[in-house]
Fold these 2 entries.
Entry 1:
Amino acid sequence: MTRIDALPIHFDARVLEHDTGAALHETVPSPWFAANEAHTEGRLRIERMHDVLERGPVADAIRFAPGRLADEGELERVHDADYVAEVRRSIERGGGWVTATTRLAGGSYEPLLAAAGTALAAAETVLSGAAPMAYALTRPPGHHAQRAQADGYCFFNGAALAADAARQAGIERVLILDWDVHHGNGTQDIFYDRDDVLTVSMHMDHGAWGASHPQTGRLDERGSGRGEGFNQNVPLPLGAGNIAYLRAFDEVIAPLAERFKPGMIVCASGQDAGAYDPNGRHNVSMPGFRGMGARVRELADRYTGGRAILVQEGGYNPSYAPYCLLATVEGLLGTGSETPDPLAYVPDQTLGLDERFAELRAELSDARLERVAAAAR
Ligand SMILES: [Zn+2]
C-alpha cells in the first residue's frame, strides 16, 4: 500500500469571502421571517471542515497546504472564454442571483479564482510527485459548472480543471469519481464527447431541474461521439445509503476501472449524501464515507501508483458534513482510525436498490466494457 505520510489539505482562506448572503435556505429570503439564515452554501461549512481536520483525530496525519488564484487562461481550459468574462462582469456589476439558488456578490471574483486555483494546487502537488494524494478543501463547489453555464452554487469546475491538469501533464486516461448527492452535470458536460476522461457520478435520482441543469443524470446519458460509453451515471433511489454507494464502487466503478486502467483518479468529494443533509435525500453515514475513501485508496494503489486528487464539492449540514469528511479522510489514510459516528441511527434499507443495480449490470454489457477497454490500448 502506498504510504501517505501527511495528506496535504490545500486551503485558501480567500474562498471564505464569497458572500452568498441571507437566504430562505438557498433562495431569496422569505419576507415573512423576522431573520433569515445564511445561504446553505456559506463559509461555516468549510470553516467547520477545517476545524475537524485541524483538531480531530487525523490532525497528525494531515498537513495544511496553500491554495492559489487560478488565472482566466487556466479557467478557459474547461470553460468558454465568453462565460468566464460574463461571470467577471456580473461580479463587477455587483453580483446578484444568477439562478434561483446561485448567487454572486460584489467581492466574489477573487474567491472564485481561489476556489479553482486551490483545486489546481492540489493537482500540482500530486502531479509533481510531492505527495501521492491531495485534497482541495474549497468552496463554492464546482461540479455543476458546465462549459458555459453556472448552476447549483457552482461557477468554475475545480474537479474538471484537476482532470485537465492531469491530461496536460501527460497522463493518458483520467477517471473522475463524483459522490456528491447531486448529478455532476457540469463535469459530464465538459467531458461528454471525450474518451480520455471517464466520468462516474453517483447521485440521488433527482432528474433535470431547470434551464441551468437540463441534464437528467440518468442511465441513458452515456457520452457522445468518441465519448460514447465514457459517461456513467449511477442514479440511486431516494433513501439510498452506505450499501448503495459501496455497491456502486464494487459493481460499477470496479469493472469500468479494470477496463479503463486510469493513470489518475480525480474525486468530486461531497458530503451531501450524508443522512442529515438539507439538500439530499440519501442516508450515507460515516462508515459509508470511510468505505468510499478506502475504495479510492485501493483503486489508486491498483491503477495509478497510489495517486488521487480530491476536490471538495457539496455537504451542507455544518454539523454532520465535517464528520463525513473526517471519515472519508480516515478511509483514504487507511490507518485504521474509525471515529464513532455522533449522529446516525436510521437503518440503511433502500427500496428499489436491487432493481437499479440490475439495470446498471445491463449497462455494463460486454460490448460496453470492450469499448472502454479499447481506450486503454
Ligand atoms: Zn451536491
Note: The first strand starts at residue 7 and ends at 11.
Entry 2:
Amino acid sequence: MATKCPVCGSADIQAENVDESLPVPYGPAATFSTIQYTCNTCGESGDFTGENTAIINEALQESISVSASAILEQLSAEGISAAYFERAMRLPARTTARWKSGELSAAALALLRLVCTYPWVLEVSDADFESSVSKSKLLEAAAGVVASVFKEKVSTGQVDVSMSSSQVNIDVKLQLHGQDVVQVTTGTSEQFTYLGPVALLSTG
Ligand SMILES: [Zn+2]
C-alpha cells in the first residue's frame, strides 16, 4: 500500500533520507538514516509510517552495546576487574559478562556509566556505604581533580612555610601559564589574605 499523508490523505508524497547521529556516553555516536516524508499536496512533513523510532532505537542499542564493553575494558585497564566490580556492587558472579553479551538493562547501563565516571563509588559500596569511607573517597577524588587542574594551569610554584610559637604562615606563589604571578598567602585565623583568581580552582 502506498504511503499516504496522515493529514489530507494525498498519495503525492516524497521521501527523503536524513542522516543523523546521537551521542552515546563512553561509546561511538549512534548514526542512522531516517526517512522524512513530505506531502506535496498540503505541505505536511514528518515520519508518516512510524518506522523511524525503530531505526533510531536499533542504532542506539548498537552504540550502547559497544559503550558497555568499552566501559568494562576501560575499568579493567584501570585495574578494576569484573570480579571486583561484581563483589563491590554485591552483584552475582558473571553479571558483567552477561551485560557484555547483550543482556544489558537500563539500570545496569546507568550503573556502568556512574562507575566509569566515578570509579571510587566501588570502594564506597564495598565498604557498605559507611559514612566515613564515602566522605574520604569523595575528598580524595576532589583532591585529585584539583591537583590535575593545578598541573594544567600552573607552570611553576613556590611554597614557603614559616612557623612561630603562635602562628604558621604559608606563602604560595604560582606562575600560571601565560599569566602574571598569583600570590596566595594564608596565615592564622586572624590573618588571611587571598590574592588571585578563584577561577584557578574551577575545572572550567
Ligand atoms: Zn497532505
Note: The helical segments are 52-77, 82-88, 95-100, 106-117, 121-126, 131-153.
